[in-house]
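Regression test attached.
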Amino acid sequence: MPPLLEVRDLYIGYGWDERNVTTIVRGVNLTVAPGEVVGLAGESGCGKTTLAFAAAGLLEPPGRALAGQVLFEGTNLLELPPEQLRALHLARISMVFQASMNVLNPVTRIREQFKDAMKAHGVGSADEASARAKEMFARVKLPERFLDAYPHQLSGGMRQRAVIALALCLEPKLVFLDEPTTALDVVVQRSIIQMLNDLRHDLGFGVVFITHDLSLLVEIADRIAIMYAGAIVEEAPAQLLYQGPEHPYTAALMSAFPPVGGKRKRLEGLAGQPPDLRRLPPGCAFAPRCTRFIQGTCDTVAPPEVRTTEGRRVSCHLYAETVPSRPLPEAGPEALGSRGNGARVAGQPIGLSPGEGATN
Amino acid sequence: MVSTLGEEGLRAGPQGSQVPVLEVRGLTKTYSVGRFGKAKLVRALSNVDLSVMRGEVLGLVGESGSGKTTFARTVALLERPTSGEIRLLGRGVPNRLNQARLREHRGHVQMVFQDPYTSLDPLHTVRYSVARPLQTFKVAPKAAHAEAVDRLLTQVGLVPPQDFLRRYPYQLSGGQRQRVGVARALAARPALLLADEPTSMLDVSIRLSIMNLLLDLQKAESLSLVFVTHDLAGASYMSDRIAIMYAGHLVEVGPSERVMGEPRHPYTQLLRRAAPDPASHFGTGRRFEARGDPPDLANLPSGCPFAARCPHVRKECTEALPEWRQVGPGHQARCVLY
Ligand SMILES: Nc1ncnc2c1ncn2[C@@H]1O[C@H](COP(=O)(O)OP(=O)(O)O)[C@@H](O)[C@H]1O
Ligand SMILES: Nc1ncnc2c1ncn2[C@@H]1O[C@H](COP(=O)(O)OP(=O)(O)O)[C@@H](O)[C@H]1O
Ligand SMILES: [Mg+2]
Ligand SMILES: [Mg+2]
């Protein structure tokens, strides 16, 4: 099946002034197949929300795409005129924003918010919109009477259900969920995730699920992309990623999440802090925090993207067939596949990426 | 970074000692909310029985609104208990204390607060915030303060201390602020540290370092630590024993591995199924089912607070609050099933 979404070598920066742009997202490739759940994880500030906005065609100034393509069902959203883009939103692509429990309009009854949203998309009469709202409330398991409530009359979990109902009311094919359950208690979080899963089975939309909670993501995603300092450093099927993270960053991030129960064991997690995106270190952006750092290589040469097994890729010198200046350390994995498409040419410093020159 | 004590440190269990530092019986706290005439009584804590042993880490786990903060603040006497008994270091704490006894109590029981952005006074330097308790609780003579502050900052990993002494909170990251909060609490030389969700507002990468810091200090100083959290994984990483709260009630207490591995109270079982846990959820394809919401604390049902949501509910559950039942070694649940 052709991908629903295909992000190709995307660079995004922030800056009102063309000569003063900070590159945030650096060369991202990502695909979502119809009905698939793709997880996106990484520390805060690594660019998850920025990437989601761009991939949903929602990026607004000062954010700007510097290079690359966002193909939704084959159409490049970055080149679409605004009115066509608006027509896609909600109807084909929708997004549940970070902290969106608080984005419902506080002075408007929820029913009216459904009507407004549907009217903007030319969905027939008010009655039709009302019927649709009722149906969506049933799907997200909210009592119908809450349609006539104001958002503040609902608990956090109920508000989030209402937001999801609104995001799905026109049955989009692709839904971005940006930390949809982060502020909620575990029982409420799990109920909402179960509900989303049921809805996905009924309505068949693809999902990009963003969270910093890797434990949760591993359970719910089909595939996971790990983001660090604006780039995807590893991508793998969820189960493989959990059983054997390849990138040292993924391994460190995973070790920052203790397991529930079992024998207690000391974890060291992730030392240090992510780099300032305006002043990325040369070579691999993770090198200064990496425990498997190769001197002379990781601090000078951008890591190549390597396809280690079917459906997996990792951007790390440890997996390169030939490391430019040093041999593989003994601990390194043996059987490594060939470099995949879009593999970055080893030796090209990241600093030469589009837009980057302007920030230095 | 912080010194590490290795795995032995983590393994030393409640065996640390069986001498209780804190014993709480029937602790109840109600708040009156609303105006006269329409005032409602919110029962934030109902009949809580709990002991904390010397040198142990007790995880206090519950969803938001379950009464965790109220428990910590009441034990620290930042709030007055409505009823119930608190014994600290073997001594009963009377309901009315004079200033000197109140200060003594607060010196023994220190808190680390949830929000590192509001818990430090923005107008004071790190040096001031950490030195203040040295004076209030008469821990050291004035001449020794500078050295004590240096040592405390070093202990919490703010090194070299000279780099931090003159900083104001806005000049610190969230993780650094939380370290100052820990140093300030330690300055009083407490026997019991109550850490109220100390990592919930921090970024993932910083959470574990604060948890490790607390574990290291707890060992080094043989402190008793109550680690308050809504995160089961964090609680099981930190704690020798875990206590589960629901709607102001304690419903289960026991060794951490047992409470997480064989939860007995139906509410604990619900929490356990809900928490992210790839190790046991993978490939099970099990549906998550839960009904209802926690009860209104101004209108608590009689009997077990979980009865309305409990899949095993019986008639007697709604009649009276179940007694504590022994469900395993050192493991108790307040449930009629056992
Ligand atoms: N409107 C904006 N203008 C300038 N910089 C921004 C803007 N929004 C986000 N950023 C910066 O982009 C980076 C990535 O942010 P974000 O995409 O929100 O990350 P995440 O969602 O992973 O936490 C951060 O350094 C942030 O400060
Ligand atoms: N000062 C107060 N006045 C009125 N109600 C309060 C007060 N403090 C806490 N409560 C209520 O007590 C209940 C328990 O709150 P809290 O102890 O903060 O729970 P937790 O820390 O587990 O989230 C909540 O319903 C809360 O609204
Ligand atoms: Mg974000
Ligand atoms: Mg609290």
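Expected vs. actual: identical. Chain B touches chain A through 46 residues (CB under 8 Å).
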